[in-house]
Model the fold of this input.
Amino acid sequence: MGNVATCPLILVSDALPDYRDAMTTLTFDSLNPATGEIVGSHPKQTPDAVHQAVGRAEEAAAWWAALGPAERRRRLLDYKAVLTQHLRELAELIHQETGKPVGDATLELVLTLTHLDWAARNAQKVLGRRRVATGMIGLNLAATLEYLPLGVVAVIGPWNYPVFTPMGSIAYALAAGNAIVFKPSELTPGVGVRLAELFAESVPEHPVFQTVTGLGETGAALAADPRVKKVAFTGSTATAKRVMAACAENLTPIVAECGGKDAFIVDADADLGAAADACLWGAMANAGQTCVGVERVYVVDAVYESFMRELSERVTKVKAGEQYGPITMPGQVEIIKRHIDDATKAGKVITGGPDSVRAPFVDPVIVEDVPEDSPAVREETFGPTITVRRTRDAQEALSLANASTYGLGGTIFSRNARRATELARLMRSGMTAINSVISFAGVPSLPFGGIGDSGFGRIHGADGLREFARPKAIARQRFAMPGMNLTSFNRGPAELERLVRLVTFLHGRRKR
Ligand code: NDP
Done:
């Protein structure tokens, strides 16, 4: 067991009482995956503690919702400033808990700030009350639509981007007027705790954003609480199914952001240097522990050799422990090793191999001609490895890219914007980048999420705001329609006849 004193970075804000210790006796340690050193020690919060947090969140949610959009915007922009002022401290903490380089942690935080800014500034425009057209038959009505807060939103987060990913739900849900109970991954609890502490500097009155720490059971207790009105989950497809089963008990809706097996397509007219550069970064950055990381590469025959030359040259300059950090989750090393063993047995090694695994670090591995039905091509690896395959043309590349149970992101490199856009639209995924990798994640107005085994629902953008709100529709009768009182037992045959004539006029003409 660790000791809080071993974690100088974790400060407890005095703005709010620290509820975390109230119900717990046991703690767990978060470790630096590169060194094994203890970064911090945190309570394993019991189901009782979680339920108390949800109870507090329910009250806080009512207060936060009543505050109104203008004041919420002001508070969230203030929170953005507080996070910015603590950027270096947070980057250091992310670095310690995940092992990723401080530069990458800083980039993660900067992206988070742009999303927080967008959510705060756009919530009122996207969700606020507006009049909508009523149509000819509703001529005597005035109709309005608005999106109201849900109440308490539970966010269950991952460790690979411990700020950017959960804040994709937290920022948008807060902007939509909800209170948050956040359960960070057991590998990155410290940064999760700090996010909530810093929020209390901007919103000291009520615990609108709380973090509960613990292992899987803590998350399970949170998802099962009937007062939670939505669960935003990021993690593996298998755990998403378990969380969904728990949510089914209370009909709690869920947004599930699961893994991916993203494809990278290089067309004949691509800028091959730029493509190789982007492919390598997309696959190896963060040691491949990116849900929208590049895992499968399809290159058209005409440029295959040239592309591989560019890729092979560049990969020699990339090493684990230098350009990227260790594998954060110890258990993941075995999965990566199994995929590398499988790929190298069945395919032709371009770079690395089984010896690239020197836990907790894994050097880049590139293997070509791996059968499409092998685990290395079908299952999420979540490591710095790629399989590369030659295809007849872009169409065949697209068919292979789409033959996956996952459907999260993807990339297309081509100089022909129209052709690339056509391919992107046909790619079976939630997001596609053209001539860059992962660029969609940095555009706050674009929704982020997948299909199939990659999950459902969306974070980010207007869809991400609406994900954490419920539409409220109101129709007000302005005057009684003369001779057309249709919703009354006094309705007569003449009124029905007029209705049929009107409908025939409006909808009865066939389009040939
Ligand atoms: P999990 O899906 O197991 O965990 C994700 C989150 O869910 C964590 O906060 C975890 O808590 C929590 N959790 C675990 N069990 C439950 C439960 N029964 N009810 C509620 N919450 C629960 O992912 P892992 O971290 O174990 O990683 C496994 C694989 O998932 C990786 O190899 C990778 O392929 C994929 N993954 C994908 C991510 C993405 O960005 N899409 C992110 C992370 C992982 P705790 O950590 O305390 O167990």
Observations:
- The mean pLDDT is 94.
- Residues 156-160, 165, 183, 185-187, 215-216, 219-220, 223, 234-236, 239, 242-243, 257-259, 291, 329, 332, 380, 382 surround NDP (CB under 6 Å).
- The longest strand covers residues 141-149.
